Amino acid sequence: MLCSKTLVEVAKVELPFEFDMSYCTVVGSVNGLICLVDTFDGRKLYLCNLSIRRYKHIGNSSSFRRCIPANPYMLLGFGYHRESNDYKVIRIMCINTFGRSIQREVEVYSLGEGCWRKVGGAFPWTLLSQSPAAFVNGNLHWVVYSPEREVDEVVLSFSLGEEVFREIEMPDDHSPDSLTCESLCVWRDCLSLLEYCPDLEEDACENCYLWVMKEYGVSDSWSKLYNIVLEGRVERLLGITKFDEIIYENQENRVVLYNFESHQTKYSSTSFRGPYRFDVVPLIESLVFLEGEDGVLNRESSFEGTSCEGTISTQSKKKKRVPKKNKKKKKTSL
């Protein structure tokens, strides 16, 4: 894990459970709890509290076990419902039934109840990518295609309290093409959208735009606040820190922080090339206890201070399995 102020490593955590670390992905992080999944087949799902070094395995539902042979395409989200003091995981599964149709199923895991349950109703939206959900105002958010709107792309929100989906319109001036890369994120507790179009020239600087929804749920409140020029080629937009810094992965597979107020750039000393997989999530120290916890994590060092942005990197020493889908695709639709 790297501190967002300095990009210096502050902690290492050994995961004692069986994961092919090439496919270990962070679903989300809330109040010091991190949700991890093995994206190869989605069977292994864990909640971890790195501060107290505890973890809990989340078992699979009977519905998910029936879907495994069909190799479902999945989208996951993790968040916290304040009113019920409950942490929830949502899993959206798309199953191709041998070319006849796309079957979509949605289920929610409640940490408080300790079980999965299906979310009723149709799910007509088309998933664009497996990018992490943005958690704002008690809702999880993804960019999807809507079959019922003239403008295809919309923000899809899922309320952890009501457990229902709603659509939020994209900004009026937002007109992405096939090359545009997008990332929903949170900036100053507001739903935000980062977008950029990769420059085809080598070592070119790239323009990035930051849209912010100033009043949650009100589409007319989208505002383009910054037009930012990022140094070098951008491989992935990863989010924004609380210090007004855009996080992205550059062509050298390094984590880069760009402060759009001071225009200063910081680079990580570590390059995540080869059999590495890294994700960026906000992380704070927490005493949240996991009921029915399964085991203890081995942490080599402690955090500096009480709050930091955590960059989690994982490395596999095993022979890599051949993924069934191309992980490098910017967008995947079903």
Task: Explain what the structure shows.
With 334 residues, the protein is mainly β. It has a single domain, classed as 6 Propeller (Neuraminidase). It has one helix at 62-67; strands at residues 13-14, 24-30, 33-38, 45-49, 54-57, 73-81, 86-96, 102-110, 115-118, 126-127, 134-136, 139-145, 153-159, 165-169, 181-187, 190-196, 206-213, 222-230, 234-240, 245-250, 254-259, 265-271, 276-284, 295-296, 298-299, 307-315. Mean pLDDT is 78; it is low at 299-334.
What can be said about this structure in brief?
By secondary structure, the chain is an all-beta fold. About 0% of the residues lie in helices and about 50% in strands.
Structural key phrases:
Neuraminidase, 5-stranded antiparallel β-sheet, single chain, 334 residues, disordered C terminus
Please give the order of strands in the largest beta sheet.
Answer: 2-3-4-5-24
Q: What low-confidence regions span 5 or more consecutive residues with pLDDT below 50?
A: 299-334
CATH topology (fold) name: Neuraminidase
Structural category is mainly beta
Name of the CATH class: Mainly Beta
Question: What's the overall geometry?
Answer: globular
Q: Helical residue percent?
A: under 10%
Total domain modules: 1
* Main beta-sheet annotation: 5 strands, antiparallel
Q: Roughly how many Å apart are the termini?
A: 34 Å
Query: Which CATH architecture is right?
Result: 6 Propeller
Number of strands: 26
SSE string:
EEEEEHEEEEEEEEEEEEEEEEEEEEE
Rg estimate, integer Å? 19 Å
Number of helices: 1
Strand content of the residues, in percent?
Answer: over 45%
The residue-averaged pLDDT reads 78
